């Protein structure tokens, strides 16, 4: 049996007294690809943020475990050090620090080891080439002035450089043109192995072209209302999310 | 460890807080009287005109009132300040001759290394007097003069007499008047016509006596077409008595010359830093100020450029970081007194833990100054909700043919940006440090490497004291 990475158990969470997550369960094992779909405002990004420990969201009930350890109260940087990663729906811009220095610093704190500048540079250039990113982006400031699509590529670049155990990709495909979706998708495919896992939040199945999804979840109104295989995606496309609600309406 | 090198450099605070136990050879009594001023002058064996300048300044000092704007200076008790401290050594040219305790202070400040690393000359001020002074031989051959101010008053008397406190006369404000009366130490630099001093000249000075004020005077003349980069650095150990610094810097940048004057100040957190700096910039000359203000309890510092000749240019780049208990009132002043002059002002101020960072700029364009260009950009970053930042830009434009741009931003550090960095493994302080360093990067990238590193170290040091 493959190892359990993430376990979200009866999660309830709110922001500014607004209840957003209302009893959510989710389990992700090593080697798996999970997809979460759901209407706008369902709480998908909120879930991703809570898994990463965003300070604005309060967990009012339930727990989050990573590799068997309760991380519900853990600091965000501690979660990152355990191997969690989030590709943001709307990545931040940080001016004054280059992408390369940023990722090298990040690699160093995550690994707790010295990162040799030249070796890192060579590795970074190779990954950027694979993502068809202009090498000049390494000396640009973190996401500063990047287009929406470039920011998403920058997130995937970071995922490949930092090599987490569980990568959560929040609408990484939206805002990407057809070619970019292809390169990002093959980047994700390259990342994927039997020791890690991916949670993909998406509205679009193109990103799954090269990737086999093991589980598809439908998240509505703060809960996972249905879980299935890829066939569920076709069903969503045919009948929309509304039909799911009636299934869950108990 | 590499990770510390890349963004949170390990800082040994003791480096900045150490103090020597050496005995001072001479110290004037605590109050400020005509007799004391005369005594200072006599000790220095000064020409009579300098004694007169001191006594006139003293009169002006008594006639002027305290500044009516800016931070409150009520903690200052002038009657209890020892205004003049003379270290237990006379001027040395050779490092080996400098006494051990003084030498160890400098060695811990990295001065000899800095010199080895191609800094052209070192004028390090220890308390009120320069004790170590050295200038590379080829520069002497080129006619470059770099000496302490006391020596300059004698050796270059006509030049000093012509320029000393002419840009910054005693009547300018009370603390300049005080400076005129009791000034001691500082540097004199003369760069002859056409000489390009390729490596920066550096002075590094610090206080070392409780209750002692420091009133060093720096006078630099960069003659026609010549070039110089002068670096002034200050770092003082901590004391409980309020310390006063009222230095003066007068810079003459002649036709076609260029001067860059860089300062990183890290006074101890009880210092009252009331410093005055002004440059007179002639035709087609270029004056650049780089200014980092980290230490002190209170700072009032507004380096000024008077663009006196057609085509003169000035650029001011400043960073200030006010933490708990600090009120840093900084900025710059530019007077466009000739046509086709231009100025660029770029400042970043940071406040945290209840610190106050106020930025003031005053740009004035005189009626005769047509085709003036000026671009002002000042940004403030508050690291929490108890700190304060203000920007107070003033423009006085008396000519219509001008091109003036102004941009001011005040903001709080973004929680989302901190979260983003933390998802990449940085802890909260590392994340804040990265954001703050990024915020001041437009400025640090202008600095010579070792100073950029020092500025980043100071930022990390300020942040490391700030959990929560
Ligand atoms: N920081 C916040 N403050 C207030 N409301 C929030 C916040 N974050 C999310 N919400 C609300 O929570 C709901 C879920 O948002 P989100 O998780 O972003 O949805 P999506 O499924 O589209 O990613 C929305 O109604 C949104 O407005
Ligand atoms: Mg979302």
Task: Please give the structural blueprint.
The complex is a heterodimer of chains A (250) and B (468).
Chain A: E1 4-15, E2 18-29, E3 33-37, H1 44-52, E4 57-66, E5 69-70, H2 76-82, E6 84-87, H3 99-111, H4 117-130, H5 148-162, E7 166-170, H6 178-191, E8 197-201, E9 215-220, E10 223-228, H7 231-239, H8 242-248
Parallel strand pairs in A: 3-8, 3-9, 6-7, 7-8
Antiparallel strand pairs in A: 1-2, 1-4, 4-5, 9-10
Helix pairs in contact in A: 5-6
Chain B: H1 2-6, H2 14-17, E1 26-27, H3 34-43, H4 48-63, E2 85-86, H5 100-108, H6 111-116, E3 121-126, E4 129-135, H7 137-141, E5 145-148, H8 149-155, H9 157-163, H10 174-182, E6 187-191, E7 201-205, E8 217-222, E9 227-235, E10 243-245, E11 248-253, E12 258-266, E13 271-281, E14 286-293, E15 298-301, E16 304-307, E17 313-322, E18 327-336, E19 342-351, E20 356-365, E21 372-382, E22 388-397, E23 402-412, H11 415-423, H12 428-444, H13 449-464
Helix pairs in contact in B: 3-4, 4-10, 8-9, 11-12, 12-13
Adenosine-5'-diphosphate (ADP) binds at residues 15-16, 18, 20, 38, 40-46, 56 of chain A.
How would you describe this protein?
The complex is a heterodimer of chains A (about 250) and B (about 475). By secondary structure, chain A is of the alpha/beta class. Chain A has one domain (about 5-245): P-loop containing nucleotide triphosphate hydrolases (Rossmann fold, 3-Layer(aba) Sandwich). Chain A has 8 helices and 10 strands. In chain A, the strands form 2 sheets. In chain A, strands 6-7-8-3-9-10 form a 6-stranded mixed beta sheet, with helices on both faces. Chain A has a 4-stranded antiparallel beta sheet with strand order 2-1-4-5. Chain A is globular and about 50 Å long. The two termini of chain A are about 35 Å apart. With about 475 residues, chain B is an alpha/beta fold. Chain B has 2 domains: about 1-415, no CATH class; about 415-468, no CATH class. Chain B is built from 13 helices and 23 strands. Chain B has helices at about 1-5, 15, 35-45, 50-65, 100-110, 110-115, 135-140, 150-155, 155-165, 175-180, 415-425, 430-445, 450-465; strands at about 25, 85, 120-125, 130-135, 145-150, 185-190, 200-205, 215-220, 225-235, 245, 250-255, 260-265, 270-280, 285-295, 300, 305, 315-320, 325-335, 340-350, 355-365, 370-380, 390-395, 400-410. In chain B, strands 5, 6, 8, 10, 11, 13, 15, 16, 18, 20 and 22 form an 11-stranded mixed beta sheet that branches. In chain B, strands 4-3-7-9-12-14-17-19-21-23 form a 10-stranded mixed beta sheet. In chain B, a hairpin with a 2-residue loop joins strand 3 (about 120-125) and strand 4. In chain B, helix 3 packs antiparallel against helix 4 (about 50-65). The longest helix of chain B is centred in the C-terminal third of the chain and has 17 residues, at about 430-445. Chain B starts with a helix and ends with a helix. Residues about 1-25, about 85-90, about 110-125, about 125-130, about 205-210 and about 235-240 of chain B have low confidence and may be disordered. Classes of the chains: A alpha/beta (about 250), B alpha/beta (about 475). The interface of A and B includes residues 53 and 80 of A. Magnesium ion binds near residues 44, 45 and 170 of chain A. Magnesium ion binds near residues 45, 170 and 171 of chain A.
